[in-house]
């Protein structure tokens, strides 16, 4: 793990404010490590600049607190929401991620433009990635 840490993917202001223990189980920590190795670090290396994780792993209590859906991949340690600052820059990052996939350098389960590139959701399911690209308003 070069650029990201499991701790970074579990950090949450909401969890801190509400006293929610958001530490992952060993199995979920393993999925987070895979997410870092297979997606986040390669994307960061190709991007060449910092990428901020807005939301990573969410335990059930935290997921409910932030209004996450019960089927969220965040609950499984398979998803992160990321940003590089502005919607315009996030769109550039989104397009770069698609090109990395097209070049065969990464595979993802879902890549989602959230709210006009306000942030990017990306997920990884070992052995069953769908390579879906979605745009949500």
Describe this structure in words.
This protein is an alpha+beta fold and 137 residues long. It has one domain (6-136): Muramoyl-pentapeptide Carboxypeptidase, domain 2, CATH 3.30.1380. The protein is 40% helix and 18% strand. The protein contains five helices and five strands. The protein has helices spanning 6-10, 13-18, 26-47, 60-65, 87-102, and strands at 52-55, 79-83, 110-114, 119-123, 132-136. A five-stranded mixed beta sheet has the order 1-2-4-3-5. β3 and β4 (119-123) form a beta hairpin. The protein is globular, with a radius of gyration of 14 Å.
Question: Any chance you could write out the topology, listing elements then pairs?
Answer:
Elements lengths: L5 H5 L2 H6 L7 H22 L4 E4 L4 H6 L13 E5 L3 H16 L7 E5 L4 E5 L8 E5 L1
Parallel strand pairs: 3-5
Antiparallel strand pairs: 1-2, 2-4, 3-4
């Amino acid at each position: 793990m070069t650029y990201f840490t499991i701790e970074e993917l579990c950090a949450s202001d909401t969890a801190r404010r509400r006293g929610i223990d958001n530490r992952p189980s060993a199995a979920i920590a393993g999925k987070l490590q895979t997410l870092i190795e297979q997606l986040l670090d390669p994307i960061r290396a190709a991007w060449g600049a910092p990428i901020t994780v807005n939301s990573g792993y969410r335990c059930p209590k935290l997921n409910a607190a932030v209004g996450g859906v019960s089927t969220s991949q965040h609950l499984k340690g398979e998803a992160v929401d990321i940003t590089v600052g502005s919607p315009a820059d996030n769109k550039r990052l989104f397009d770069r991620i698609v090109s990395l996939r097209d070049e065969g350098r990464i595979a993802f389960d879902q890549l989602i433009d959230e709210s006009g590139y306000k942030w990017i959701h990306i997920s990884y399911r070992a052995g069953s990635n769908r390579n879906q690209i979605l745009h949500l308003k």
